[in-house]
Amino acid sequence: MKTTASVILLCLFWAETLRAQTSRLLKVNYQSLVSKADLSYSEPVVRSDEGMPIGNGRMGTVVWSTPSALHFQINRVDLFCMGNNTRSFPKGHTDYSSGCGYMDINVVDYGDDVFSGKTFNQHLSVFEGLTTDKGNGITSRVIMWNDGDVMATEIDDQRANPEAINIDLRMLRYGIEYSAGTNYELTRRHAVQIRTMNHVATSRLEIRDGRFLLIQDFHEGTFYSASAVAIGVAGRKSKAIYCNEATVQLSAPPARGTFTILTASATSYDRTEDVGGLALKQLDAAQPKSFDDLVKDTRAWWSGFWPKGIARLHSADGVAGRRRKELYLLSLPHGVLLTWDLHAALLRHAVGHGRRPAHVGVAILVE
Prior knowledge:
This protein has helices spanning 2-25, 30-34, 183-188, 275-286, 291-305, 319-334, 339-352; strands spanning 39-41, 52-55, 59-66, 69-76, 99-106, 121-125, 130-134, 138-145, 150-157, 165-170, 191-196, 199-208, 211-220, 223-234, 239-244, 247-252, 257-268, 311-315, 360-364. It is an alpha+beta fold. It has 2 domains: 32-305, putative glycoside hydrolase family protein from bacillus halodurans (Beta-galactosidase, Chain A, domain 5, Distorted Sandwich); 309-367, no CATH class. It has a 10-stranded antiparallel beta sheet. Strands 2-3-4-5-10-16-15 form a 7-stranded antiparallel beta sheet. Strands 18-19 form a two-stranded antiparallel ribbon. Strand 8 (138-145) and strand 9 form a beta hairpin. The longest helix is centred in the N-terminal third of the chain and has 24 residues, at 2-25.
């Protein structure tokens, strides 16, 4: 009996000691740890895929700049543009999946360049999911709202001579193809159709109540999918016009101060569903909120996300420490800690350098 009691007491003591050690171990400054993966650029990137990633696990983009504009490609993880029985895309990497549209925020017509020179800086706060672009007289902040599929872009124009801000929404693909009996109707509807064997991809521009949309739909046999991107402005008047067959534009008048550009997206696999209406509902949900309110919501979501998994990586050549930063960056647009993909990459690195995989370790631990 005494032996049993002693064992129980020993187990309780061991459990309490382990709990205390774990408690001390888990006292982590998550913001400081995750912020080590922040990106900061002192000049605009050369390639669009070098832009800064943001997302909420459903909708994502990279943000990059040229001297006169900010650029985005809006993507969705749930947009599949062909079925599993396709005969039109024999190679998977040739399909249209995930891409929804391009957006450009043009801040210069004739005046001086903005995003260039010594004043330029682009910074990604990984912990907050927030990008900041600073230029000559203009600062922008961009977040992807986690409570809805909406990207918010705040423009703060403090130039001595502000210019109109023109937001372009562009089709991902454009081509002039003859289709008997349909070309005039497609033009009238501001639509472009691309055929690839039996697959038909249609992109269509639309203006509804001062906001504009880019709607895509994809058909092949019984397969159907559709996506929509909707854009509106909060805090400043705006005017929507069709620029050409592939672009629609929303213009905000010249003025000093701040306003917000809201970009929403949606996906549907139901032919009877108005996918454009779904995207506009996302805009309506975000419209009453200020940009700071949206930042607060997003910051709270990411603050709750990071403590769920911390990466501790090690390799003899030091590559694992650099890959940890990439892990956090990969997590940002997806909303999930991508440890398995990183583990596989580290193993490939080890094998490729003639080392045993045992030299690489990955675990969800506190460093």
